[in-house]
Amino acid sequence: MGRAAEMLGVTPAFLRNLGTAKLIEPQRSEGGHRRYSRYQLRLAARARELVDQGTALEAACRIIILEDQLAEALRINTELQQIHDRQRSDSTDRISA
What we know:
Elements: H1 2-8, H2 12-20, E1 27-28, E2 34-35, H3 38-52, H4 57-96
Helix pairs in contact: 3-4
């Protein structure tokens, strides 16, 4: 945890608070040490940005969760649009043949 906090320029308490707020839930090593993924570190860095801008920690966590959900919805929408476009193209090809 100390190394992750140092990399992000935050305190270990800040990282613990992100866990309490359910933004990130690190894995534990056999020795019980918290281990953060790169994705979790990106979320923590985003939380730090928002908190540094004056956003309350709980609000920052909610914003990040909503940003993440929006990004996932946009990704799914793009995939579905591509499938739809392929199906339209296939049916147009069959009609033309």
